[in-house]
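Q: For a teaching session next week I want to show students how multiple molecules come together into a single three-dimensional assembly. I've collected the sequence lines for a complex. Could you give me the predicted structure tokens for the whole thing so I can convert them for display?
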Amino acid sequence: MASRFWTQGDSETEEEESDYEDEVEDGVGAGESATVTAGSRYLQGNASDSDDSDGQKRVVRSAKDKRYEEMTTTIDQMKNAMKINDWVSLQESFDKINKQLEKVMRVTESEKVPTLYIRALVMLEDFLAQALANKDAKKKMSPSNAKALNSMKQKLKKNNRQYEDLINKYRENPEVEGESDELTEEDEESGSEFEEDPSKIAIGSEEDEDEDEDDEGGETSAEGGWEKKMSKKDKLMDRQFMKDPSEITWDTVDKKLKEIVAARGRKGTQRVEQVEQLTFLTRVAKTPAQKLEILFSVVSAQFDVNPSLSGHMPINVWKKCVQNMLVILDILVQYSNIVVDDTVEPEENETQKGADYKGTIRVWGNLVAFLERIDAEFFKSLQCIDPHTREYVERLRDEPMFFALAQNVQDYLERVGDFKAAAKVALKRVELVYYKPQEVYDAMRNLAEHTDGENLDGEEPKMPQESSRGPPAFVVTPELLPRKPTFPESSRTLMDILVSLIYKYGDERTKARAMLCDIYHHAILDEFSTSRDLLLMSHLQDSIQHMDISTQILFNRAMAQLGLCAFRVGLVAEGHACLSELFSGGRVKELLAQGVSQSRYHEKTPEQERLERRRQMPYHMHINLELLEAVHLICAMLLEVPNMAANSHDAKRKVMSKTFRRLLEVSERQTFTAPPENVRDHVLAATRALSKGDFQKSFEVISSLDVWKLLRNRESVLEMLQAKIKEEALRTYLFTYSSSYDSLSLDWLTKMFDLSDTQIHSIVSKMMITEELRAGWDQPTRCILFHDVEHTRLQALAFHLTEKLSILAESNERAIEAKTGGTGGLDGLPLRRRDGQDYAAVGGRWQDNNLSFSQTRQQSGGTARSGYNTVGGTGRAFGPGQASRDRVGQSRGTGSGGGYPGGYQSTRYQDTAYGGGGLGRTPYQTAATRGSQMDASTRMVSLNRGART
Amino acid sequence: MAKYDLTQRIAPNLDRHLVFPLLEFLQERQLYHDEEILKAKIQLLNNTNMVDYAMDIHKSLYHSEDVPQDMVDRRAEVVARLKALEEAAAPLVSFLQNPNAVLELRADKQYNLQMLSDRYQIGPEQIEALYQYAKFQFECGNYSGAADYLYQYRALCTNSERSLSALWGKLAAEILMQNWDIALEELNRLKEIIDSKSSASPITQVQNRIWLMHWSLFIFFNHDNGRTQIIDLFNQDKYLNAIQTNAPHLLRYLATAFIVNKRRRPQFKDFIRVIQQEQQSYKDPITEFLACVYVNYDFDRAQKKMRECEEVILNDPFLGKRVEEGNFSAVPLRDEFLENARLFIFETYCRIHQRIDMGVLAEKLNLNYDEAERWIVNLIRTSKLEAKIDSNSGTIVMEPNYPNVYEQLIDHTKALSGRTYKLVSQLLEHAQAQTAR
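A: Of course. Below is the structure for the complete assembly, covering every listed component.
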């Protein structure tokens, strides 16, 4: 069977065999296959063909005869060719007979190779030997003939190896061929050749071969000879190992290993089989170091099992791979003098040093790379498996297994002192934990402690069984390391331990990812301020667009989670700031890698689609999109409704959430409003109610959403939401109807909005202070007295006129600027003027703020940023919601507008992705315009103005 | 009231010796048991060379004349080391004590070094010894000596790192000697060095700033101008950031400074925002008071907080400094604080009210009716408040002031003519340039 590595699958027999092989591998093989011992599988893959034979129907006899006849004619042809020494035709006939053999085999459906064929082989072999011996004749041959001879020689050797026993038997006693055939057959099937001593023969024939080689001299293709020799030995060695452990030396194992490894990646190499061969070798390894070396090859061979990028490694292979890694670690722990290194090529015989060798032994390998690969395979398998099946759940249960491995690797690396690598491994562990809330974490812990323990126990007895079938391993590795992961009580503790290790030793990317995971995890635990501080202090928002896409996705996820967290703790403005950018492009799914959304503007190439698919998050890591949308829209509603009411006369000004406005406009255009169906409808219905000040209805509609059941502290969140809605309803009411009242009693408001005195007092006072509401308290009577500051028509028109005038002046300036090339003394001026002009429209408090504002304006670009950039520059970009109302304060901490330039970067990843794909279409918003939006909301306003005129 | 005590959070950022005044204060205020404080003192002293002092405390703590052997041993050791250092530094010290010799020193450091080594055989070793000697003196509690030596050392030292720690030492010594003016100078010098050192890692910079701020508390709350200067220092972006990241408890001092300083309005608004942000990480009655008045507009709670603030101030080693005048002791800061806090409440209260009942107001201001009336009349007279008292109904009526519409219009258009003029002149200039070409 080993020949398969060398014959490039040219004979179909082999492929067929391998099919069977696979079947056995998958455990699908019918009843009998169970009896095929592991040993035999390694030795005689072809023997297993017989397993399935019995159950099948026999074909009519005549067909069989016909095949035999064909074969006989071919043999006759061969004989003729031999006579005239025509190797070309001989070669053709040989191929033909092989094909016929296959047919015959199929027809007879037996493993028994017809004696006819064997006889032909013997004949050929003899003739070949003769021809080779006759060097003069060979020299005289025509080139094509000589070539044919050489290739024939090789082919024959390869081919004959399969039937070696038969041939030998035939040579011994050609008379009783039939009988002996039968005998060998059985031998092969049982897989234990104890009746004979094949090793003897094997060695004999091997020597023959060697002699042959010597005879040949160097002029024939040396490589072919070498290959043959090796492959011939291949099978024999396996047998040797089976037979006589004491004869195996380090050299033989090493040679064999090299040979198998050399076959890796070649066309026709059976990957699964290679793994098995190597696994077998681990058992016969002579020294721990060698075993380690072989194990590394096993693991990498296992990675090769799945060749495609999109598919995932078979799960059972994955599991074995994990087990192998654990064994590797066991060895490393047991023999602490063995060093794993991938920077220097170890010496040739490094692994020869035995267990008692005291110095350091270097073995080539990279634990971290293997671990990362295993993790990637795990991730991929979760991506591929349909999340709604039982399989997915089963797969998830393997997580503790990986976790245990990672833990052990990390421990080992820490012990060895390779903290950089340990940090990488720690990151893998972090990435397994960060998205789990405490409940899920507990579940995983339980699983690891209980069920998984059984699971592993269940597997363990199997392992010794398997190995007991084969010869006992030379290097016995006791299980030194725990096979179960250990988890601290709370996920936070675990995160803290891992993350602090990473912050200390990790490289930039590792640190950034760990930081994002940390932020995410804090956000899950409702620790908003901590995670906000982490985000701001790490300056990740500034640098995220330079990172790789998967980190950008992680960033988006962290932002989304932060937004949810802000909402849960009742910080509506912050929540909105976090989420609005995610939603602004309408591509949430893509940004969070939770599905591919179809975009109208881009036709994606298959290549891009494949890339995107590879980035997807496994289902169990998803952030619920409906919840996210609900939270975003509700936040937007709570901010936007009173804002719209406050600026009812000038709707274009100060838009908080463009997305929300757009939705609202669309819904207003509808003639009939249907009862709400999806999240969006619900929020819009609530908005309609809220804008009338009807907080009860608004809350009812919103609380009827079923996404709330996804929240852990549902009651408290809804309570918070109700309170917020009431507050905003009150504000909206006051904004909308203040002009109709001269005074409003506090008691009446309390009754109307179901809020306490102090709350209402506080809210209304705040509005008065910020001059949103022109009113004052009448303390003795507990009333709000509204001041009539409505402008008369004439006044309003006059204001309008001045506004137009300043716009005119502005456009004049711009025209001149364009003409004169923007030089001259105007440079500093327009900026300032634009401010003035903006605020001219506000009316009232323009003169108070004008000066201070134009100063702060210039700072808000610079200083607010520098706030971030200084150390610990908790720039506190989360300017409280009022920041935009109270402009003077913008010098520190950007206003609500600039609070999170995060989503801005988050959308970047798509841009790069598309750009990279060669499409190069600029996405809807270019970076430049967005940048200006972020910088200061004021600039945006002034640009709009400019556009309108 | 011990829960508002910040000693534990402040102490780690101070020099050992600087903690003593705090402990003394705590002992005086009786916030903790005497024993605890004495023990803490001994612990502090363990790593200093003030062994005699430690022995005294030990005696008073355990009411015995015996002193543990290790203290006695340590004393001998300290004395021996002092001798050794004194000897090492002797040449330089004797040089510096000779007024004639000192006159030879010039402003040029290199020259001085050259001169010393040529004429007095004083090389780098001696200068280094001076530093060690000064440090040792400081640890023995001889602050004035230490300050002098460190001053001299700085004049001769070439190593900038050493020079910096000498400066810290000098600052500590001056603080402990209560030379506030000199200490302030040193403080500013140190601040410049810290700020200009851009090469230092951000973390050390933050740490240095935090130390500096902690140390400066001694100066600012004792120096005459300290209360404005504390705002100047703490409210700088870099320093405020440092406070927010690592030492939010310093907000208390900044808040107090803001309250007692009336002229700091623009910065004050920013500061309110900072307090709002830091609510999670730090809270005490003083910051809460500000939050009540300026964020939540909850005047009843502000009232309550104000009373708590008084306690906090009295128990704070920096804020609660007593001034003895004859047999009458007062805490000047408390009075000022309360006065200003009252004003804050009142101001805000008035801004959102049109009519206020005098009785209620008096209650809110912690004054009786007549006092309140007098206070308000004073405010109106000094035109700080645009209001009238309606004594018939016992209310104050505010006069709403909104900007005049016509003023607004004029303001809007005022700039236009200037702009147009400038535009035209520019156009003309341009045209001229064109024709000239």
